[in-house]
Specification:
The chain is mainly α and about 210 residues long. Helix content is about 75%, strand content about 0%.
């Protein structure tokens, strides 16, 4: 069988080959771009997970110190912008400790938005819980200071239970069983561990595989 090869046929074939090559290159380019995006997202999720998990561990340590019943003499000294009658009040110390860590907790709150973008808004509960606890401690300190000014209520007085509740929130009880704040902090940390640890371990495993 004879085939007539014409200039138009050769040109059409060349155009087809060029089009196929261009399509293949475009397809490969899209695949490479998607792979790069996936890698970049995975790296970013790892970085955020590692940072947030470390921050929650740090928050747990700070809040444990903030609620420590042991107070040093240096924590009852004057503080700029605060009335001396307040700084000399031992009930004010937990709030003073929080003020010293204000920058850290501001940073932690900012990380909530980034975490929500990468891990989902439905998973920011631990951030909200830590913030609630901070507010409860602050409110508790204000109540204790107020009670101190008016006199600590006696057992027979109506405000006695309110005073004790504020005391248990602000200061770690000597018996762990009486502490209602520490378990909430621990639960928030555990939830962050559940969300972040698999991401960190997966990334570390991939890094080891690439290394070997």
């Amino acid at each position: 069988m004879d085939f007539d090869i014409t200039a138009d046929g050769v040109s059409a074939l060349a155009d087809s080959i060029t089009a196929l090559a261009a399509a293949a290159a475009a397809f490969q380019g899209i695949r490479s771009l998607n792979a790069w995006r996936k890698e970049a997202l995975g790296r970013r999720r790892f970085e955020v997970a590692e940072d947030v998990l470390a921050s929650f561990y740090r928050a747990q340590e700070i809040l444990s110190f903030v609620r420590s019943p042991f107070i040093s003499a240096g924590e009852l000294t004057d503080e700029e912008g605060v009335d001396k009658s307040l700084t000399s009040n031992s009930d004010y110390v937990p709030l003073r400790r929080l003020h010293d860590q204000a920058e850290f907790f501001t940073s932690l709150r900012a990380k909530k938005q980034i975490f929500a973008a990468l891990f989902g808004k439905e998973n920011v509960g631990p951030f909200d819980e830590i913030n609630r606890i901070l507010n409860e401690i602050q409110t508790g300190v204000e109540m204790l200071v107020w009670f101190r000014k008016g006199g600590v209520p006696k057992r027979t007085e109506p405000d006695h239970e309110t005073y004790l509740a504020a005391r248990r929130t602000v200061t770690r009880p000597l018996k762990d069983a009486d502490d209602q704040i520490a378990p909430r902090i621990a639960k928030a940390v555990e939830e962050i561990e559940r969300l972040c640890t698999p991401e960190i371990q997966s990334r570390m495993k991939k890094s080891r595989l690439r290394f070997w």
